[in-house]
Design a protein that fits this description.
6-stranded mixed beta sheet, 37% helix, alpha/beta
Length: 404
């Protein structure tokens, strides 16, 4: 079935599986937000493992393999483990009155089943859509994280930022801390926290970071009730520092005593495919809304090149193409639009129309991301660079093409 927002069905199957009556992990951190969830989860995982903790992380969507969604101690789940999880979900779904589940709900329940079997020190769960009604929210988090809030998934969450904020804040629990990792959040986030009795720890207020030199920064945070902690001489992880600071704060509230050496090692080594990932002249980023595109543009402006900046763009039909193109126009010298597969996808011609409407020409319209990359690869000057963006599907296709 398609997306049917609500927790009744997935909670019922979770109850049949025993997931609601057992401990998932010693500590659980749930991460919600519009952008920045993936990088925050990746840094949480790397930092926790550097401190000797066993970890499980659940994220979505994937780029190349479904196995990417569930990582145990930093390693993708095996096919056998995933299949066993799916079989456990199916058996519970049919145990009594059959319950219909979506693709995401089956995957989430299967991942939770696998995590329970491992009993890690820390489980890190990424919300797939929204928060309050997302399947991940059947689990009570010890620490909730909100990264950013912007307009995305409008068909399900609407365009009202206050309403979106309330949905994201649905992961909050009474008496358990919430880390706010953005300086610009709608008032409904704090309003929900106050109504639920959720203590709030916010970036720029309770924790903060400062650059201390080229590629280095420092962090100051707090515990509960008010123990101050700080770290100096941290390396730039190549991911947003707001998210890195948020990860450090969330771990502190999850009772992890931060060690400076472990934090430096983790941040220097953390990797996240498809987020400002440079492969030669190619930069791959899954950004697909105006907020993410604006961040990409600022990062590229900070890394000027002597050649042209090409944008290879493929997007789904329910995304804000005009907003993304407008944000990237400040750094784009040339555009290549590509067609994605599936009923939700836009064609290259449709995207080209949006680019033309912005006042820019389109160099090439390709029938697929791979065809666009093939065309472009023969025309790049040594000093040029390419930004591949617009969708997980676009980036995944180019990653696979590069591995051929």
């Amino acid at each position: 079935m398609g997306i049917d927002l609500g927790l009744d069905r997935v909670a019922e199957v979770g109850r049949r599986m025993g997931l609601l009556d057992t401990t998932l992990a010693r500590r659980v951190i749930t991460v919600a937000g519009t952008n920045g969830k993936g990088s925050t989860v990746a840094m949480l995982e790397a930092l926790a493992r550097a401190h000797g903790l066993s970890t499980a992380s659940y994220t979505s969507p994937h780029l190349l393999r479904y196995n990417e969604r569930l990582r145990l101690d930093g390693v993708e789940a095996s096919d056998d483990m995933l299949i066993a999880g799916f079989e456990a979900v199916e058996a519970a779904r049919l145990d009594g009155d059959p319950v219909s589940l979506s693709y995401f709900e089956v995957g989430t329940l299967g991942a939770l089943w696998a995590i329970v079997g491992c009993q890690p020190d820390l489980a890190i769960l990424e919300v797939g859509l929204g928060g309050r009604l997302d399947a991940v929210n059947i689990i009570d988090a010890d620490v909730a994280v909100i990264t950013t809030i912007a307009r995305d998934h409008s068909a399900y969450l609407g365009d009202d930022l206050e309403g979106i904020g309330r949905e994201k804040a649905g992961i909050f629990r009474a008496g358990r801390p919430a880390v706010l990792g953005s300086r610009e959040l709608p008032g409904s986030v704090r309003g929900t926290a106050a109504a639920r009795g959720t203590p709030v720890v916010a970036i720029g207020e309770d924790f903060q970071w400062h650059e201390t030199g080229p590629s280095h920064w420092c962090w100051q945070g707090c515990g509960l009730p008010a123990d101050n902690v700080s770290l100096d001489d941290l390396p730039d992880p190549g991911l947003p520092l707001d998210n890195a600071a948020t990860a450090l704060q969330a771990l502190t509230l999850a009772d992890v005593a931060l060690d400076a050496v472990a934090c430096r090692l983790a941040l220097a080594d953390v990797k996240l495919p498809g987020r400002m990932q440079w492969l030669g002249q190619w930069c791959l980023d899954v950004g697909h809304n105006p907020h993410a595109a604006a961040y990409l543009a600022e990062r590229l402006k900070a890394m000027p090149c002597t050649g042209r900046t090409w944008i290879l763009l493929g997007m789904l039909g329910d995304k804000d193409a005009d907003g993304v193109i407008g944000a990237l126009a400040t750094v784009a010298d040339a555009w290549v639009t590509v067609t994605l597969e599936g009923e939700r996808a836009r064609t290259a011609a449709e995207l080209a129309g949006h680019v033309h409407a912005s006042g820019a020409p389109v160099a090439f319209q390709a029938a697929s991301p791979e065809a666009g990359a093939e065309w472009l690869s023969g025309r790049l000057a040594p000093e040029d660079r390419v930004l591949v963006c617009g969708s997980f599907y676009t980036v995944g296709a180019i990653l696979a093409w590069m591995q051929v």
